[in-house]
Amino acid sequence: MSRDIKFTVNVDEYLSLNKYEVDESNAHIELVDEPSDEEFDKLIMVCPAALYKRDEEGRKSFDYAGCLECGTCRVACGDTIIKKWENPQPTMGIEYRFG
């Protein structure tokens, strides 16, 4: 009897089920003014929501709006480039929904 179970998970599909209430007046994550390339690249690799990006010219960008509030960035980089990390205010942030 074969126990090979093969299935594919589309992460984007599951993430799209979530609801976000973005607090435009209070970012719950802030980076230092000049984040180092090495630390920023760590965040590009570990952030499950892909909030940290570089464009074709190497310019860095970050947007807290789609944050999953997992804390991976805080664990990976501590206070090296994360100036502020706190949970969003009540009724703000992510609301997980399961299909």
UniProtKB/TrEMBL annotation:
Keywords from the UniProt entry: Electron transport, Iron, Iron-sulfur, Metal-binding, Transport
Name of this chain's protein: Ferredoxin family protein
GO molecular function, one term: iron-sulfur cluster binding
Domain called 4Fe-4S ferredoxin-type: residue spans: 58-88
Originating species: Slackia equolifaciens
